[in-house]
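Hi V.,

You were right to ask for the full record rather than a summary. Here it is.
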Amino acid sequence: MLAITTTLFAGILFIVIVFSGLYIMSGIRGSIVALITAAVILSMYLPFALLQWPGADVFALHVAVYTITIYLLTIITGQRDKKDNKSFKFHWAPVIIVLFFVVVIAVNSVFITVAQQGINGKWAKWFLPEPQSQIVSVHSPFSGVVPEKELEEIYYRQRVQKAYLGWNVRRGWLNVPVAGEKGTFQVVLTDKQQQALSAADIKGIFFIAGQRDKEVRFTMLETALGTYQAQVSFPTEGLWQLDLDIHKGKENYTFRGNTRIQPKS
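Predicted structure:
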């Protein structure tokens, strides 16, 4: 998906070129040119937005920016459309309206950009409070939402699996996990009778919510009866989510949890 700034500035440039070309070459009044330009840009952007839906807020932002740009060009060309320039009187109302929408669009652009890309280190130091822990980097982009129904299904499935199988999954680290360093992640698997479960196939994924590009996949090896370990290294510190899939014969157990990775000293 293209960045917001790319589609916004590309659309503005297209509007200026089309509006100026039609107005200069055809001699049509600016208001008529504005209607034609609006029809052209919206007929191009609407299919693009539907194919790659950016969200209602981003869609509304594009429509507002394109409309304001056309309105500004209409005001500018409206002066030339006056046959008698002496009869033209400047009015503050259009200017105030335009300035109002410019401020609204600018504020919304900042909100959307921060939500999608986060705040970089320099801006974060200016606007965000000092961290109360030793964590030096903050994940500021919006991580997205998880539907309540999906959370209920995950919780229900995990409860049903545990009640049916009776497996007990104990997991943890043999050493404090630090970003950029390999740590030993261990899982101890037992059945209803607290007997070790051997020969299980265990795979997992560590990931930061909303940043699946940073996921860390691993496969665990059985180092002792019912004890499985894996060497895992994390690129950054912070709170990482865990999806753990356990297969043994025809049985399958899915476990979800989280772990905090400490910054490298």
